[in-house]
Amino acid sequence: MGKNGVSPHCEDNQIHESLVRQVQASLLDGLTATRLAEVFAALSDPSRVRLLAALAEAELCVHDLAAVLGMSQSAVSHQLRLLRALHLVRYRKEGRTVFYALDDEHIRDLLERGLEHIRHQTPSPSIAEERPHA
């Protein structure tokens, strides 16, 4: 927002053709944008973020995840199913026990970058706190 509470905007209607072409040449295609949006949508749920954060600390089975997060085993399993489908977590079997882990270091990097982003900002109310009450 600008000084007077209005979003800044261009004063003229000039299109910068060379810049537009340059950006269009490197713009994400629709499928890639959709897949990335699905990953961010998965990360929009606090329970899933906490689940991924737990798996960033250690490989855990469903029972351990449920205990760590204070969730039911069925709720954890439901979240894991979605995260597996998006290749955010993987599993391995050891006898009758199934252990879950982050799929790769990219997932850890996503979490760390997100935490860096929110921690460097000036403390402000959450979006939910900014909404007017009905």
From TrEMBL:
InterPro entries, A to Z: ArsR-like_HTH (IPR011991), ArsR_HTH (IPR018334), HTH_ArsR_DNA-bd_dom (IPR001845), Metal_resp_trans_reg (IPR051011), WH-like_DNA-bd_sf (IPR036388), WH_DNA-bd_sf (IPR036390)
HTH arsR-type domain mapped to chain residues: 28-122
A Pfam family the protein falls into: HTH_5
MF annotations from Gene Ontology: DNA binding; DNA-binding transcription factor activity
Keyword annotations: DNA-binding, Transcription, Transcription regulation
Protein name: ArsR family transcriptional regulator
Domain of life: Bacteria
